[in-house]
Design goal:
homodimer, alpha+beta, Alpha-Beta Plaits, 2 domains, 10-stranded mixed sheet, 10 strands, 21% helix
Chain lengths: 250, 250
């Protein structure tokens, strides 16, 4: 019986999860997915994920992979099989067989995150779980000037989280820009990988500089100082979506 | 000290409410709004609402009115005052003084409801609370043919709810049509007033006839039969929004 490596694209509402990764306590996305796969396989199945999203962070295109020894389920049928078991705040969107060597985390070439800001005096209740509500309109041109300074390879220590275990804080941002979308102001950022809280710390800092009417160039100074204290607050998890993950073979 | 009549437009996420109207048990929108007003006034305040939405039904533009004896709060400041107290699944959008004779329910000239259908194999988790998910694409032209038969003044007994206390089941529908909006298929209906469950019973019946490939004209036969058993299931509350209410003076 041959073993297949299955890739699945997941969407989830992170509101009621303590993030992706299994923890001693608290409901995690990884746990509900592994429980669903264990039910299908009748034995434990371990999954790898492209992005270990934090507590409250959403996903529109998380990518996972796992190995199956079940010959009875065609690869594309893992989507309905999972959806018949998963709670409604997690959905499998696509499933397919990939090369045995494929690893959702290590092979990811590009990760795209989107951060949704609702810049209006009052946030409609049906949007509140999926955005960061600020009661004013920030200056789009200034935000995009700031974003331009973080594109490229930099030491992002100033935008890292306390206790981040990664020895190197150097990361490469491929693109970073704000754009309006309906009533939202969206920050789109792509890169190979990101530090813990990095996207939310960047957004929090951009908004702080804009609100204090400080020059956009100060982003460069904050970067170069490698000092977390100079950056702004971590923007709320509710606005952040892991939008998609790109691999060399699609 | 003069008494003012205040009109407020509300939006709410109905998911975690047992509808608008106060009940012996269960959290209602009316109760949280009256509690907020009692806190502002330091005495009980009764509110009237244009639409007594059911359990789980949302509002983008519910209209209420109440009388205030507080001279300290300008009419437009009831919006931030309420929002500083209300839970985040209810928001005041606008508040203004209206004529003493204004009554949110009795003076409503037109009510508009919208019903959101998500006609795709998989519903993204962040939409699930705000739509009715059906895993197939219904035929838009057929649905609109059906909707055309209910426009006008009819006895809607076939689309009423068991136990509806209204003596007359005659209602006037001013307009009724389906249109695509982003990934959703939206049913928009306007009329002076609606029977209990009427909009959801109409949607459930349209979808049933479409799926069973029955002629759209059968809607007319179901109407004329005045028999609830001929109509389809009540579509879920999650898809329904009280979109707006129109009065003669704006």
């Amino acid at each position: 019986m041959s073993r297949r490596n299955i890739r699945v694209v997941l969407a989830y509402d992170g509101t009621d999860f303590f993030g992706w990764q299994n923890q001693k306590e608290g409901r995690t996305v990884q746990a509900v997915v592994e429980q669903a796969l264990a039910k299908i396989h009748k034995h434990p199945v371990h999954v790898h994920a492209a992005g270990r999203t934090d507590s409250g962070v959403h996903a529109a295109g998380q990518v996972i992979n796992f190995f199956t020894d079940l010959s009875s389920i065609p690869s594309e049928k893992f989507t309905p099989a999972l959806n018949s078991i998963l709670p409604f705040d997690v959905r499998a969107l696509v499933s397919e067989e990939v090369d045995e060597s494929f690893h959702a985390r290590f092979d990811a070439r590009l990760r795209e995150y989107r951060y949704y800001i609702y810049p209006q005096p009052i946030v409609p209740p049906y949007f509140r779980r999926y955005c960061h509500w600020i009661a004013y309109r920030p200056h789009l041109g200034r935000l995009n000037r700031m974003a331009s300074y973080i594109v490229g390879t930099h030491d992002f220590t100033s935008f890292s989280a306390l206790g981040d275990p990664n020895p190197s804080k150097v990361r490469t941002v491929q693109s970073a820009a704000f754009f309006p979308q309906g009533p939202f102001l969206v920050f789109r950022i792509t890169g190979t990988s990101f530090l813990w809280h990095m996207v939310r710390n960047l957004v929090g800092t951009f908004l702080m500089l804009d609100q204090e009417e400080r020059p956009p160039e100060q982003i460069r100074e904050i970067l170069e100082a490698k000092d977390r204290d100079l950056a702004g607050d971590t923007a709320p998890a509710s606005g952040l979506f892991l939008h998609r993950v790109i691999y060399d073979n699609g």
